[in-house]
Amino acid sequence: MKRYLRILMMLGVIFTFGGLTQSTAHAEGVGYSVAASLPKNQDDKSVTYFALRVKPNEQQKLNVVISNTSKKKSSFEYGVNQAITNNNGVIDYSDANPKLDSSLKIGIKDVIQEKKAQKITIPAKSSKVVTLSYKMPADKIKGMILGGFYVRKLDVNKGQSSKGVNIRNQFAYVIGVRLRESSAYVGPNMKLNEVKAGQINSYNQVQANLQNPEPGIMSNLKVKAKVTKQGESKTVLSNQKSNMAMAPNSNFNYSIPWGDTKLQAGNYTLTLDATAKGGYTWHFTKNFTITQAQINSLKNKINTPQQKNYFWWFVGGGILILLLIAIIIYLIWKRRRDDDDYYDDDDDEN
Question: Is residue 306 situated within a structural domain?
Answer without folding.
Answer: no
